[in-house]
Amino acid sequence: MYLVDTHTHIFSEEFDTDREAIIKNAIDHGVRQFFMPNIDTSSIDRLNNLAGHYPGICFPMMGLHPTSVNAHYLKELEIIYKEFDHQKYVAVGEIGIDLYWDKTFLKEQIAAFETQLQWSIEKNLPVDIHTREAFPQVLESLHKIGVDKLRGIFHSFGGTREELEACLQCPHFLLGINGVVTYKKAEFREYLAHAPLTRIVLETDAPYLTPVPFRGKRNEPAHLIYTAQKLAEIYGVPIETIAEQTTENARKLFMPD
Ligand SMILES: [Zn+2]
Description:
The protein has about 260 residues and is α/β, with parallel strands linked by helices. The protein contains 8 helices and 8 strands. The two termini are about 25 Å apart.
């Protein structure tokens, strides 16, 4: 089986003591590629170091995370934009709007998000979108910048039935499904199968959002298998079908040639 973790922060310090073992264990479990969204300027070196050690296995994205948007965001964006000239990045991410933690910089978050959506069009790269309690704002920005020209992932999808439909109406967007789908309170399990499998990718968001049966512990890419298993139940197909289709979806998005 060949699985792809489309959203993982294995470059973060939570993995400093055992990163190599974690990657080896994931590969042993069939998780063969790792797509890594950046956070802000302080994470760039860690991200690129890891990508440099694992060419063809660990792929870096570049962007400014919404919870890192503050009064200095223009300076952050300037540094991050220059990164695209230094090396190859497979996507603009992780970008978006987050009103769960803090609404202080809403205006700045929207501006940073829309600037980075423009970059993705200019660089012809997909986007990896983080949205938390901000779905209407995210959708508004996508339509304002031009949703037909954009492609990417709604990372950590867990929205309402209406939000699912709105995501599917963005023609070149996929839903990133992670460990949350294994939680009993995840209502979206009831209607998720309305999304065709061609619109689904798997992710862990490690070290966060650990699936059952490891909930409460640090998440790692090897746990992707539990999310794949839950999707197999929801869609009523063998887990191999989930693996094949989601891997193909990820490959087409990140490596379109
Ligand atoms: Zn993330």
